[in-house]
Amino acid sequence: MKWRKLQQLLLALVVSLVLVGCSGGASKEERPIKMGVKTELSTLDTLIVGDIESFSVLGNTVEGLYRLDADNQPQPAIAEKTDVSEDGKTYTFHLRDAKWSNGEAVTAHDFVYAWQTAVNPDKAARYAYMFANIVNGEAAAKGQVPVEELGVKAIDDKTFEVKLNHPVSYFLSVVAFAPFYPQNQAFVEEHGEAYGTSSDKMLYNGPFTVENWDGSNQTWQLVKNENYWDKDNVKPQKVDFQVIKEVPTALSLFENGEVDDVLITGEAAKQLQGSDNFVVEPQAATNMVHMNYTKRPEFKNKNLRKALSLVIDRDQLANGVLADGAVPAENFVPHDFVKHPNTGNDFADDAGNVDKALRYDVESAKQALEEAKKELGQDQFHFEILAYDDPQMKLVAQYLQGQWQNELEGVTVDIRTMPKQTALAEAGKKNFDLFLSGWAAILPDAINLLDILNTKTTANFGDYNNPKVNELLDLAEGDHATDVDQRWQDMIEAQNTMVDDYGFLVLYHPYEGHLRNPNLKGFVYHSVGAKYDFRQAELVDAN
């Protein structure tokens, strides 16, 4: 206890120094922008990437047909011009003159190769299911037809054609996502399984290249790509990254001018609210607990899931434990993420709150647990929570452990923390009981968050399988894709069905609190997809 009090005193001292004033101004000599991030890179392979930090680096170093602008709207990138057929099912992309970082031309064949590889069952691409709207996309991913029958074609080096099963209103946003980026076949095959595992085993066609990442180290750099087609509009020469997991370290580095932007969580974030250098960034994301229905069949008991959910005080977790701007979940999809194309209504407003499932109700939780004990014929439940080893997730895991053990008789919980990429690998192998994780949208469409509820999605790590939810989501992406109102209702019903079923334990919507150098200008932070865009970022002198 004494040590904890000492830590709190030291934290308060460092926060007070930050509030008094940071070193702020950039030197007149150009220096790199310095970023502090909370997790390591996992991969640079655009087809297997699954974590937001790697997505963000790839979003600055590899470029697809389109990219999202500051308002999350798709803008032409490698595609200089796009033709869409009258029935909305054929897209013809005319590519601009662009090069890879080795000087080779980016061609339509690079897109054909990457997209065919994405649906190759042998690749096990994380987002293969997102190609299902393309002709033969789903069949190819299931091994039912050769990947060469995917509805894509290089008409010539500069013309790439895509045929869809049906119109997809948000398709240009889809192709701005990393799994739809091109890959240079010769380079990929030269490096084999090592492709994307370090900065020198990767080709780049975006604004920057990655340097000095060996696959596991906690520092790396983005360096301006002199072969980028729009290099004249890229301002920074270099961006330095370092992984910073402890808040006192982050505070100290910022106060000393050693980072220009760094994530701050917990008590420090609470104390910094309202200060000039503290910026709160919204996230189109939901943090939740996956239950492993395969390894621990007890979770198929709805009363057990209900008990675990109802002892979670989501308001206390978000505003008391995290206190970094996080918002307690009222449903799965957060407010202010996506609006109805015709009515302009917010998705979360139309869906309403699922108060019954997400309320804090200890007595009902205890009753549900007693029913679960009778139905399962057991009085004791021991679970392990797998979580990332960053400060936020540790706090959340400890809170859940305390609530479940203190309020639910017969429930004991251990915590196992790992670096994010290791934890994701464990989850992918189903080596967990409970997995505390987040799911962030990479497209400005509700289906992109809701996809994880579908049993066919590889990121549905616990194998939650509700036939009604699966059917509704499949309809929203298939037969109802062009019926805006019906699709909207399908997604709302799928979401509410899962929450009422306690299929995942929905917790909160994260907001990131950052200390940011006020002299860092032109830096774009996205709520979806790659978190940041450095093309126009620069450090300016304070005057």
From TrEMBL:
GO terms for cellular component: ATP-binding cassette (ABC) transporter complex; cell envelope; periplasmic space. Transmembrane segments: none annotated. The keyword Chaperone does not apply. GO terms for molecular function: peptide transmembrane transporter activity. One of its GO terms (biological process) is peptide transport. Keywords: Peptide transport, Protein transport, Signal, Transport. Pfam families: SBP_bac_5. It is found in: Cell envelope. Residues 73-460 form the Solute-binding protein family domain. The keyword Kinase does not apply. Belongs to the bacterial solute-binding protein 5 family. This is Peptide ABC transporter substrate-binding protein. It comes from Aerococcus mictus.
